[in-house]
Specification:
5% of the residues lie in helices and 51% in strands. By secondary structure, the chain is mainly β. The chain folds into four domains: 107 residues, Immunoglobulins (Immunoglobulin-like, Sandwich); 93 residues, Immunoglobulin-like; 70 residues, Immunoglobulins (Immunoglobulin-like), CATH 2.60.40.10; 98 residues, Immunoglobulin-like (Sandwich). Strands 2-3-9-8-5-6 form a six-stranded mixed beta sheet, with no helix packed on it. Strands 27, 29, 30, 31, 32 and 33 form a six-stranded mixed beta sheet that branches. The longest helix has 14 residues.
């Protein structure tokens, strides 16, 4: 029971204390007077981004017999005391002073309850600055500034200044987003991955109290990027490849399709290039802008497949849509000759061609010498000769053999 009464008395004592508050502040700290460490006066911080912010203090009377008298005073550096009259009110239970400049304020409350309260007001406005420091074709260097206000409250005992701790942080960004190395560590960052589109660079400065300032500038990109696509990138010879330019700010173009002096073009969108020789090719594009910024891109790799023949040993020309023709499967073949003989040695089919005729060749359909006469089922002898685009000759016993015709 005794402890319960003590708790009640402590609560009543705390609730009866006078209070000093302020509306609209962003943060609150407490003073640290080296000579009076037991005294903790409130420090109210306002964000003053517009430069027109003023402060407000409100003193609330303690519990007891109201009304009270309130007398407000501002700190005077000349007298090192709260001696500048601000406002006096009598017969009220609370008092408010507004439109206050930075500084320290004391309110004396009297009339049945005598006390005084001290509070400090600071109007915080961090400083930020963003600009272009330098640029070349290869990099962009930014210039920034970040600072916070420095605030001092005064020790009422001797008027000495005590600095209020305040730290500054900053962060660079851009819209649209682009690479900025160490955006929160380097006040003057430099990027070697410059933006390829126009961006707005911004620096945001924030202090310990949560107040911030932003500065930005518009940056018009001058940078170039060589880029292209190739289609197809693999196939048999002759392989016709189309190249599509996707570069940014290219004005002068130089293409090297990887086949010596005869594979150079200065057109932005060159005609499709034909690779006749099987192998692997590397394609390079160099571009230059109107401001003489240069970039290049190399594409690895265009693959032209080596020559190849695959000769079937059976076919069924019965018009069922499956394996109806004696068709030599070929790849990167420049010239092809096919002769088919019956068991008696009579030629029943022949084809010889290259270029367009070879591309359109559909094989032997089982008719005798391209007539309406149908070859009888049985074994036929073939002789095949071919030349690959890689200069490989196909004219050996592997290209002589038998094919079975079934119906």
């Amino acid at each position: 029971m005794r402890y319960f009464i003590l708790i009640i008395l402590l609560f009543l004592a705390l609730s009866s204390e006078a209070q000093l508050t302020t509306p609209g502040n962003i943060a609150m700290r407490y003073t640290i007077y080296p000579s009076m460490p037991e005294i903790k006066d409130p420090v109210f911080i306002y964000c003053n981004s517009a430069g027109s912010q003023k402060g407000t203090l409100r003193a609330t009377s303690p519990a007891g017999s109201a009304p009270f008298d309130f007398s407000w005073y501002k700190w005077d550096d000349a007298t090192k005391s709260f001696s500048i009259p601000v406002k006096s009110e009598s017969g009220v239970s609370l008092s408010t002073v507004d439109n206050l400049e930075e500084g320290g304020y004391r309110v004396i409350i009297s009339g049945g309850y005598d006390t005084s309260l001290v509070g400090w007001i600071f109007l915080d406005k961090p400083h930020s600055y963003a600009a272009l420091l330098n640029r070349t074709c290869d990099y962009v260097a930014l210039k920034g500034a970040a600072a916070t206000d420095t605030f001092y409250y005064k020790n009422p005992a001797n008027g000495s200044a005590v600095r209020l701790q305040n730290r500054v942080k900053f962060l660079w960004s851009s819209n649209p987003a682009s690479v900025i190395p160490f955006p929160d560590l380097e006040l003057n960052p430099q990027t070697f991955v410059p933006p390829l589109v126009d961006v707005t660079y911004k620096i945001q400065v924030t202090d310990s109290f949560g107040c911030f300032s932003e500065s930005s500038f518009f940056y018009e990109s001058i940078h170039v990027k060589a880029d292209f696509s190739a289609d197809p990138t693999k196939g048999e010879a002759p392989l016709e490849v189309s190249f599509t330019d996707k570069s940014i700010r290219g004005s002068v173009y130089k293409w090297d399709f990887g086949w010596g002096a005869d594979s150079i073009s200065d057109l932005q969108n060159p005609a499709p290039y034909i690779y006749n020789k099987p192998g692997e090719y590397s394609v390079k594009l160099i571009i230059e802008s109107d401001l003489h910024c240069i970039d290049s891109m190399r594409f690895e790799k265009i693959v032209v497949e080596p020559s190849e023949l695959d000769i079937p040993n059976v076919f069924t020309p019965n018009d069922d849509g499956m394996n109806d023709r004696f068709m030599v499967q070929k790849k990167s073949i420049r010239f092809l000759s096919v002769e088919v003989f019956s068991r008696s040695g009579k030629m029943v089919y022949n084809f010889s061609g290259e270029g367009e005729s070879l591309r359109n060749w559909e094989g032997w359909d089982g008719k005798v010498n391209n007539t309406s006469a149908v070859a009888t089922p049985g074994v036929y002898f073939y002789v095949i000769r071919a030349l690959g685009w890689d200069d490989i000759e196909y004219d050996s016993k592997e290209q002589r053999g038998f094919v079975y015709l079934y119906r």
